[in-house]
Amino acid sequence: MAYNLPATRLLMNRLRQMMAEDGETRSRLDNVVRLIASTMVADVCSIYLRDRSGQLILIATEGLKPEAVGNTRLGATEGLVGLVSRRAEPMAIQDAPRHPSFSYRPETGEDPFHAFLGVPILRGGRVIGVLTAQNRTERVFGDEEIDTLQTIAMVLAEIVDRIDPEHLENGNGHERTRNPASLRGRVFCEGLGYGRAVLHDPVVPAAKFFASDQEVEADRLTRALGGLKKSIDRMMAIDGAVLGDDPRDVMETYRLLAHDPSWAEKLQEGVRSGLSAEASIDRARREHRARLQSARDPYLRERLHDLEDLDNRLLRILGGDEGRPVISEERSVLVARRLGPAELLEYANAGLRGILMEEAAASSHAAIVARALGIPTLGGIEGLTTRIDQGDWLIVDAEQGVLHVRPDDALYDAYKDRVALRSERQAAYAALRDKPARTKDGKDLHLMLNAGLELDLDTLDQSGADGVGLFRTEFQFLVSETLPRLDDQVQLYRRVLDKAPGKPVIFRTLDLGGDKVLPALNLQREENPALGWRSIRFALDHRGLFRRQLRALIRAAGEDPLTVMFPMVTTPAEFFAAKDLLMKEVEWTYEATGKRPRHIEVGVMLETPALAFSLKELAGEAEFLSVGTNDLMQFFYAADRMTPSVSDRYDLVSPSALRFLKMVSEECRTHGIRMSACGEATGSTLSALCFVALGFTNLSMSAGSIGPVKRMIRSLDLAAFRADFLDALDKPNDAFRNQLLALAAEHGVELAEG
Ligand code: PEP
Ligand code: MG
Q: How far apart (Å, rounded) are the C-alpha atoms in residues 186 and 179?
């Protein structure tokens, strides 16, 4: 097999023509393998395609016996072809029959061929087949030849993806029917949506694979690479307040990758072989994705993610506005592998009908932004981006956690019925908006809003919330690429206060670290970030940053009242240190501006079990306590909230957790600390019922939960229910959740679940 650039370019041109031609699939494939073999002077060229069961079926060959086509089937990992498919990377072997994985198939007449080169045919991170070249002589294929065959495989992917290998025997290449599919996901934001898939990552259409002018193309690529390096250097040169100097910092890795000459060289080589700049990047992206699918090591996975992000960035730079996903005015569902909160915010006004992410954590920041936007969102859908094509119709059932891809008519009709039902329910909740959250026996409760973005405040009036029970200030940091300056912070906090006139707003101070990682803060990689240098621990160790935030809060309040709470406090000493800084900042601000808040309330979040045993020390110092169920439950049960296999395993509605909260409630009462709860659990009507029965008067939740929780409260005779509830807590049966559901039903409490 010989290799030279002009021949490759010629081959690309011919393939381009073939792709455009109509005609019978089988003969098109025969022409393709003949062309590849002759141009590359290979004795054999074959295409194997995976069927639904994962078997690799020979669908075209030049050089092997024609009768093997459609008949030679290899198990998913059988033979050298299976090995290429499993590893998702090219393999060049000098003497194939002597390789331990070689599987001899007499029907192919393969024995005289020694040199073997196999490359995966990749589409959307999936291996859909394998392309091979073989020669009689024993030799090793060189790097350039491997690159060439990979490029051809990329072009082939577009041709063969829609072929159903099962229908080749009878000589006709039928189009693979793209069946409906249902995939399970986790509900990140409740709701129902219907629309066409819009892929977040740039798509390179087959028509753009080939360059008409190679020099122009090389120049475009060079300029795009330059632009990428510059944009990353700019991101690195942010704010003087960059902290720490860990060399494994995420941004630095990014920069190293972007400046890596071998990556750039590989891309240039693709262009030299006749590909467009976009196609060359796409080729690299397919490889990174395929390796990502099989990589297990978390560090390697992160690097491959970084590489894929770089591929995508580069494609966006090349495409300019053209490279941006187009959201049509109506009916678009965004499909993304993973999304940063800032990226998602860019779609805020696009009228999306749904958001789908492969990313798995409901408490990830993109998920929280999706909730703020109120768009039905599912996450944790494995293989999502490889199973959906641009423009596919989708039903996002973010009530039951199911995604229907290319739904049939029956599913669509069922969906429409559900939408009608949902709007009836929503109308009933809306009618409660101006009614108090008062129990049947006259106890008034406060339902507050969890917020983190200015955008959230728009739902304050609509939802009928009594105020903001948790404002996550770190969001401003997470959605911007640089550290917000003092003025930016003051302005945001002031706008938040202005949007909630006459209503309380509880600002939670910076809760960074854990899963809330800022590229700008060179945080060290930790073994257990949730248990690590995060939240108030981090803030107290970075006083400049922390004090700047406290100052911003005080300045924003001016002479208005200010409520602040500290997150993840483990010991009273941490609380006192933080409160001390706050009070000093109040004095300094007063000296500087002559203004200070006319009333200051300081609260503490209960997120670590240890603090529950120190409430006595906080008496008279902390006005209120807010249970952060997301973190508290992960520490209470030792179950990571970010790991899907354990995050839903343990129930807050269980005797152990509720007895713990009962103890907290009694301690608070004894020491005169007001009790509230925030965190996702408050949004479930059953959990909220438990909190209320335990004496919590203030519950903070996302906007969509306020209606259902208010309805529950208004149907509740608290004193009567509490007596039976405490009794059940004392004598629980094995299915405690069911026991409580039955009890609630007996008392006529209207729950949204169960
Ligand atoms: C919590 O942990 O419950 C909480 C409200 O804080 P966050 O989810 O922001 O960690
Ligand atoms: Mg928390």
A: 23
Which pLDDT value is given to residue 151? Answer: 82
Single out the residue of 384, 163, 731, 375 nearest to residue 739, CA to CA: 731
Q: Measured on CA atoms in the order 389, 395, 396, 400, is the torsion positive or negative?
A: negative
Q: Strand 73-74: give its sheet, edge to edge.
A: 73-74, 56-62, 44-50, 126-135, 115-123, 91-93
Q: Which ligand is nearest to the CA of 515?
A: 1
* Smallest CA separation from ligand 1 atom 9, residue: 472
* φ, ψ (nearest 5 deg) of residue 179: -70, 160
Q: Is 66 exposed, middle or buried (0-12, 13-18, 19+ CB in 10 A)?
A: exposed
608 C-alpha to ligand 2 centroid (Å)? 9
Q: What is the pLDDT of residues 116-162, one digit of tens each?
A: 999 999 887 778 899 999 999 888 888 888 888 888 888 888 777 76
* R_g of the chain, CA atoms, integer Å: 30
Residue among 470, 517, 678, 691 whose CB has most ligand 1 atoms within 8 A, to mutate: 678
Token pair listed for 89: 């990377």
Is 678 in the active site?
A: yes
Q: Ligand 1 site: residues with CB under 6 angstroms?
A: 363, 470, 472, 511, 607, 628-631, 678-679
Nearby residues for ligand 2 (ion, Cβ within 5 Å): 628, 631
Between CA 359 and CA 367 the distance in angstroms is 9
Instruction: Tell me the H-state helices in 295-408.
Output: 298-319, 341-345, 365-373, 384-387
User: Which residue CA neighbors atom 1 of ligand 1 most closely?
Assistant: 628
Q: Strands across the sheet with 393-398, in order?
A: 181-184, 402-405, 393-398, 191-199, 332-336, 354-357, 377-379, 186-189
Question: Could you give phi then psi for residue 590, rounded to 5 degrees?
Answer: -60, -45
The ligand 1 atom nearest the CA atom of 450: 5
Q: What pLDDT, in 10s, does the model give residues 408-431?
A: 999 999 999 999 999 999 999 999
Q: By three-state DSSP, how is residue 451 classified?
A: strand
Residue 238: the pLDDT is 46
Kindly name the residue from 365, 404, 668, 690 that is annotated as catalytic. Answer: 365
Neighbours of 185 (CB within 10 A): 23
The low-confidence residues of the chain, meaning pLDDT below 70, are: 1-7, 19-20, 162, 167-178, 234-254, 293, 298, 321-329, 360-365, 481, 515, 519-523, 754
Q: Using CA atoms, how far apart are residues 737 and 754, in angstroms rounded to an integer?
A: 9
Residues facing 210 on adjacent strands = 275
User: What are 539-555's pLDDT values in tens digits?
Assistant: 999 999 999 999 999 99
Q: How far is the CA of 339 from the centre of ligand 2 (A)?
A: 21
For ligand 1, atom 3: residue with the closest CA: 628
